[in-house]
Structures are given as structure tokens and as C-alpha cells.
Amino acid sequence: MTASYDVIIIGGRPAGATLAARLARQGARTLLLERAQFPSLPAASSPIIYAPVMHLLDEIGADENEYARGTPRLRRVIGDNSQFKATIPIPLADGRNYAYAIDRARFDAALFENARRQGADVRDGFNVTDLVWDGERVVGVVGQAGKDGVPETLRAEIVVGAEGRFSLVARKTGAATFDEHTANPTSLYYAYWRGVRPYDEDGAAAVAYEGGYGYGFLVMDSADGTTAVTMEGQADLFTPGEEGAEAFYLRLLRSNPKLSARLEGAERITPVQGMKRIGNLYRQPGGAGWALVGDAYHQHDPLDGQGIFNAVYSAKVLAWAYGRFRRGAVSWEQALHEYDEAVRVKTYGMYRRTLNAVQENLYSERQMPGWALSGLRWVMEDPQMHELMGKMFTRQLPPEMISLLTPAVALNAVLRGPLRDLRKRLAGIAS
């Protein structure tokens, strides 16, 4: 059996599904293939999305009431450790001043259905096993529905790999790797819980807690009264061995008194899942008859919560580049060059910033004198610093500008800090 399309996309998660929706809206005959059956969780993901992601989803008709159904709006990100507590309000961007810790099963299923609504042919439960070649050019895929399905050959002008870190398309084409960073590898574990105590009385939040040297925790209120509890740390530290991932995960959770108190009486409702030695790289964007998008193209440590943005943004740019190729404005080779260049302009600064944050937060063991700890607390509790961080999370300021502004803001924070402490003491005395 043989069918023919303009574009076949392998992988129906956020990058593949949003790309399919955009291509279908352009009038391209698009087939979206996904190995799993929806709704289902991906192999590993405990994500947060901010306004820029939702704005990109607005552009393709995805309904926020569907993909975020039953999910509380997070209006603040909190850093809570023994030295300071910083509450960063999520600033207004693209008409929204909130984020979501989304349920990936619900989110991915909604985006897959949206691709269908926009006119793409979609098939879940279809496993692609190989590429079809005509000389040096990719011209299709071979796969089957389920384990016992009849093998099918599906042909297309372009085949796109959107199937994540271990992309079959990247592997079969020998896609080259660029800007890879392996010096400070991290791994993560997470599970969803029910009955976790609220952080406080001020509503849903994403809360980062300190761990021991080389790791930390992130707790986010999520869909239907659940809470995502994630830990990330140095890859060599996050190797459970005979203890096993579940026992390792639970033991580290108990090591933080504040987190342990919130989990008292709560029920873990999912298995402990994880991702080992998370990649940090760009791959060759494509070649003769093929392209890569999402994690198949660009992998980025999740510490700054930008993974879903990178996926749906790269899908938007690839759809734009393909449209130029389809109209005859550029060759496919030039379209790939423009795609790669545009995505790097948008993502490379945050990529470098995240790599630096991994080094500083997970791989640096700092022993600070008391005066330095006071200075750090004044900086981290300063409202102007919170404003900068919020604008970075929502991509209203590029990381390069954050780096330029931070020293001046930090200096002013240190100057204002003692006065702020004095006001707190006076307020305490008055009360």
C-alpha cells in the first residue's frame, strides 16, 4: 500500500502537531504520524508553559480551554531556600499574566486533535520503522499500525522528524551535531501527586526548593488538583543503582523538610519517570527530502522551563521556511538555512543562559561569608530583579539584555536591601 503527501511528520507531540496544523493551513497535504495512542503521556516531561507558547498556539486555532482544561493559572514563581525567599510575579505578555504546569497527556491530545481540525491527516498508534530513499534523497517512510499491522509505504516530498531526542530521522540520515555541550550533564525524576498541601493561601504557584549539593526540586500545581514534583541534578549524582529510581526519588524528597511537610498525607498517582543525561545541542536542520524539528533538532536543559516554547517556535519557523520553498521563492537547501538561522537567533541566547545556570546552580559549590549571603538575599528578594526574571521567563527581554542589566540592578538591590530589612523590623515591632 502506497500513499503520497507533500509532507509527512513523524512524531505527534507539540512540535509535530503544531507543525502539521500550520502546514495544513497553508494548503500542504500533510500526514502526521504518532507511535503512541492519545491521550497518553510522553516518555518524560513535567513542563511549564508561559504566555509566548499560548500565543503561538492561538495562531493555529488551538483552544486554551481544551489543552489547559482543569489546570490552575500560575501567577508566580517562588524560590524558597534557607537563605532567601523570592516571589516572582509572572508579568503580562501577549495578553496573559499566568503560566500553566500542563498535563501533557491532555495537552498533547488537544494539539493532535487541533492538527486534524486544521486539515492534516493524522494517525496515532502508527510506528515508523524506516525511511524510503531514492538515491541520496528521502522520499517517504515505512511503518505499520500497531505491532501486527500490515507494513505500509508512505511517500512525501519532505519527511520531518519530530520524534524527540532519539529521532529515527536524525539517526537514519546521519544528521550532524553542532554546539553540543556535555560538560555538566543533568538528569531528572518526577511524578504527579494528589493531596499535596498548598504552598500558602495565595493560590497556585511553581515553587523551587533547594536540595543538597548538585540538585534541587520544583513543585508545580497542575491539572485536576494534582501537583507535579520534579527533581533535577547532576547526572552522576542521579544514578540510583540498586536502590532503584522510586526509592531514590522518595528519599531525596524526604531530605527537604518544607517539601516533606507539603507531601505529608499526599498520594503519588503516577510512577516515577525520568530523563537521563539530558542533551544540549543543535542538529543539522535537514537535508535532501528531510528536516528536523523540536527536540529532534534542538535539545535544551529544562532548568529554565523553555522546552515547549522551543518546540512550537521551531515548528512555526519550519512551516514558514517550507512555505517559501513551496511557493518557489527559495530552494529547499536555502529554506533549511533560513529555518536554522531564524531559530538560532531566537533560542541561542537562552540556550547559553541555561547552560550557565546549570553550571552555577548545580555544579558550583560556593562557600559564602555572612556578608555575601546578605548581599545575595537582598538581590534575590529585590522587586526590580523579580521584574527582570519575569520578563526573561516570558521572553520579553532577551537573555543577552538580562546579562547587561543584572549588574546594575544587583548593585541597586544591595544598596536598597538594608533599608528594606529595617522597614521589616520596624513593621514587626509595630505589629
Structure description:
- It is a single chain.
- The strands form 3 sheets. Strands 1, 2, 5, 6, 7, 8, 17 and 18 form an 8-stranded mixed beta sheet that branches. Strands 3, 4, 10, 11, 12, 13, 14 and 15 form an 8-stranded mixed beta sheet that branches. The protein has a 3-stranded antiparallel beta sheet with strand order 9-16-19.
- The radius of gyration is 23 Å and the shape is globular.
- The protein is an alpha+beta fold and 431 residues long.
- The model is unreliable at 368-373 (pLDDT under 50).
- The protein folds into 3 domains: 2-44 and 103-179 and 279-350, FAD/NAD(P)-binding domain (3-Layer(bba) Sandwich); 48-52 and 62-101 and 186-277, D-Amino Acid Oxidase, Chain A, domain 2 (2-Layer Sandwich), CATH 3.30.9.100; 370-430, no CATH class.
- It starts with a strand and ends with a helix.
- It has 12 helices and 19 strands.
